[in-house]
């Protein structure tokens, strides 16, 4: 999947549209999902132009990959959701219904999230 810099998360990173920010560092930006699917629903995105998980791992350097993973962990810690549990989710491509073509990880928590997802 090639990267389309007109996607909405790229616009958020460029400051062209606002977001409800919960965390930011050199490698990542985290903000509340505009249409939450759980009481806590946070999106974490890398700052670089990566369309998907596979693109990120193939194209990002090691510092970006480690920094992004540590940013996710910081967001989880600051959200106070470890005791209750949480789900990490990353949709990629057509079959997974990826809506925004900038790699992102959903953090879902705050309620019983049920079992595995169904189509
Ligand atoms: P996905 O289907 O995995 O690509 O998820 C995209 C997510 O982005 C959805 O959960 C949307 O609700 C969320 N979203 C879209 N636009 C915004 C926005 N401007 N601010 C926050 N979340 C957004």
Brief summary of the model shown:
The chain has 119 residues and is of the alpha+beta class. 25% of the residues lie in helices and 21% in strands. It is built from three helices and five strands.
Task: Summarize the structure in words.
The protein is 25% helix and 21% strand. It is of the alpha+beta class and 119 residues long. The chain has a domain at 8-23 and 39-100. The structure holds adenosine monophosphate (AMP). Adenosine monophosphate binds at residues 8, 19, 31, 33-35, 43, 91, 97-100.
Question: What does the largest sheet look like?
Answer: 5 strands, antiparallel
* Bound compounds: adenosine monophosphate
> How many angstroms separate the termini?
22 Å
Average pLDDT confidence is 96
Give the strand content.
Answer: 15-25%
Order of strands across the main sheet: 1-2-3-5-4
* Low-pLDDT ranges: none
List keywords for this structure.
globular; five-stranded antiparallel beta sheet; alpha+beta
Topology:
Layout: H1 8-13, E1 21-24, E2 28-32, E3 40-46, H2 53-59, H3 62-78, E4 86-89, E5 105-109
Antiparallel strand pairs: 1-2, 2-3, 3-5, 4-5
Bound molecules: adenosine monophosphate.
The site of adenosine monophosphate (AMP) has 12 residues, from loops.
């Amino acid at each position: 999947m090639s990267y389309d810099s007109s996607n909405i998360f790229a616009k958020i990173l460029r400051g062209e549209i606002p977001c409800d920010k919960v965390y930011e560092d050199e490698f990542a930006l985290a903000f509340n999902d505009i249409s939450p699917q759980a009481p806590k629903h946070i999106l974490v995105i890398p700052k670089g132009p990566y369309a998907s998980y596979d693109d990120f791992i193939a194209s990002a350097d090691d510092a970006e990959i480690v920094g992004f993973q540590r940013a996710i962990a910081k967001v989880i810690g600051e959200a106070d959701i470890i005791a209750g549990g949480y789900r990490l989710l990353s949709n990629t491509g057509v079959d997974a219904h990826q809506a925004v073509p900038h790699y992102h990880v959903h953090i879902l928590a705050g309620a019983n999230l049920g079992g595995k997802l169904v189509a």
